[in-house]
Design goal:
With 130 residues, this protein is α+β, with helices and mostly antiparallel strands. It contains three helices and four strands; from the N terminus they run αβββαβα. A four-stranded mixed beta sheet has the order 1-2-4-3, with helices on both faces. The longest helix is centred in the last third of the chain and has 29 residues.
Length: 130
């Protein structure tokens, strides 16, 4: 995943998890937000993704392997995300015990659900204006 497509700053992670929508599955939680407000200084049009892998998942080797797996999965899904989108994928314990196909289906399911919630939220906000 290109460096421009990765979330790196703590403020971006915090904004995404607090202002965005989330969708949880057994082993992953996907937080999705569209950050286009002027107070965010690092805005770029291309979607960005960050990962939170807890020590409950395992030691540093296991956590790094988990991040690599998730990075590969999300790289193929960047084109599904809207402009200015930020995504935080948070893992849960036991993620290293599941197979690749199961992990892909959980990430896809959570991402689809979060995109649906985001679309519903934006259509609700547009309906209240005017």
């Amino acid at each position: 995943m290109r460096a421009a497509s990765r979330l790196r700053h703590n403020d971006d992670f915090r904004l995404t998890t607090r202002q965005g929508v989330s969708a949880a599955r057994s082993h992953v939680v996907v937080h999705l937000a569209v950050l286009s407000s002027p107070e965010v200084k690092r805005i770029q049009e291309e979607p960005r993704v960050g990962f939170v892998v807890s020590k409950k998942v395992g030691n540093s080797v296991v956590r790094s392997r988990t991040k690599r797996r998730l990075r590969e999965i999300m790289r193929a899904r960047l084109d599904r995300l809207p402009a200015y989108a930020t995504v935080v994928v948070r893992t849960r314990a036991g993620i290293n015990d599941i197979g690749h196909d199961t992990l892909v289906s959980e990430v896809d399911s959570a991402l689809t659900s979060a995109l649906g919630k985001l679309a519903k939220r934006s259509s609700t906000h547009e309906g209240t204006r005017g």
